């Protein structure tokens, strides 16, 4: 009997993270999902358990290093393996360089870059052990198209997402020979709570945005790649004339 696969997904309570969790649950994976809000996590976990598989819920704030350490320990204690680490939890703040408060820049960096780094580092022994001598384990980082192409008023956010993508690239140089590789997925606007402010008739109708399921399809496809196949980056744009815009 083959062992069940396991993933740790941050920001798994809603939006893109919940869509990825659902896609993985449909394929029989065990999951740890994390976010700050316990109620939303429990609600999503109940839905995922009805699809099948074990789901562990671990609340953690990505600005809290001790909470990240505890999240890694909880996932390892529950499943003892990690076939996919999905670093998805993130925050967005708009604002031009001219008057962007530096404390906001610091928080963005903590959540969008420092936390993914700590998670990649903390989970590395488990990822390597899961890959073993012939298998594969994947890190899937939800970056953004704003980390690839410039977008007005998203200087700080875009910089954090470019940093995340860069981390994946270098991680591959260091770890892919151990069977562990990383992919940054860089979508334009996805129909979630985070993009709420830009929806509407005068802006971008929600139904014309990328769906969480679209992002989840790419994330799951990455897990089907073998040990010797590395996808450093996947840019996912909206249709129409905005191809290289969020
Ligand atoms: N939506 C878009 O248009 C879009 C496009 C490109 C990339 N992205 C990226 O995709 C990722 C997911 O975004 P989304 O659209 O799914 O957003 P969302 O619907 O707002 O969900 C964000 C998730 O992250 C969690 N989270 C937020 N801040 C956190 C923190 N400090 N510590 C721990 N968990 C935290 C949230 O739960 P709690 O609030 O309970 O903590 C929630 O589970 C983000 O990295 C975002 O930058 C989004």
Automatic annotation (TrEMBL):
<keyword id="KW-0521">NADP</keyword>
<dbReference type="InterPro" id="IPR002347">
    <property type="entry name" value="SDR_fam"/>
</dbReference>
<dbReference type="GO" id="GO:0016491">
    <property type="term" value="F:oxidoreductase activity"/>
</dbReference>
<dbReference type="InterPro" id="IPR052178">
    <property type="entry name" value="Sec_Metab_Biosynth_SDR"/>
</dbReference>
<dbReference type="Pfam" id="PF00106">
    <property type="entry name" value="adh_short"/>
</dbReference>
<keyword id="KW-0560">Oxidoreductase</keyword>
<protein>
    <submittedName>
        <fullName>Putative oxidoreductase</fullName>
    </submittedName>
</protein>
<dbReference type="InterPro" id="IPR036291">
    <property type="entry name" value="NAD(P)-bd_dom_sf"/>
</dbReference>
<comment type="similarity">
    <text>Belongs to the short-chain dehydrogenases/reductases (SDR) family.</text>
</comment>
């Amino acid at each position: 009997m083959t062992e069940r696969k396991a993933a740790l997904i941050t920001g798994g309570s809603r939006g893109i993270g919940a869509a990825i969790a659902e896609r993985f649950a449909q394929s029989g994976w065990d999951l740890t999902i994390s976010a700050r809000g316990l109620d939303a996590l429990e609600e999503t976990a109940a839905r995922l358990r009805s699809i099948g598989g074990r789901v562990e819920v671990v609340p953690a704030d990505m600005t809290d290093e001790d909470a990240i350490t505890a999240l890694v320990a909880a996932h390892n204690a529950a499943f003892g393996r990690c076939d996919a680490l999905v670093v998805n939890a993130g925050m967005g703040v708009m604002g031009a360089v001219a008057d962007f408060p530096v404390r906001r820049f610091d928080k963005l960096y903590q959540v969008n870059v420092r936390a993914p780094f700590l998670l990649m580092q903390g989970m590395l022994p488990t990822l390597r052990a899961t890959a073993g001598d012939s298998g594969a384990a994947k890190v899937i980082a939800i970056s953004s198209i704003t980390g690839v192409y410039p977008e007005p008023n998203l200087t700080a956010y875009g910089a954090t997402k470019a940093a995340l993508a860069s981390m994946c690239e270098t991680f591959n140089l260091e770890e892919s020979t151990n069977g562990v590789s990383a992919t940054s997925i860089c979508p334009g606007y996805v129909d979630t709570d985070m993009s709420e402010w830009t929806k509407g008739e005068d802006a971008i109708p929600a139904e014309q945005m990328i769906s969480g399921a679209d992002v989840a399809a790419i994330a799951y496809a990455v897990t089907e790649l073998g040990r010797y196949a590395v996808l450093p980056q996947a840019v996912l744009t909206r249709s129409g004339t905005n191809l290289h815009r969020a």
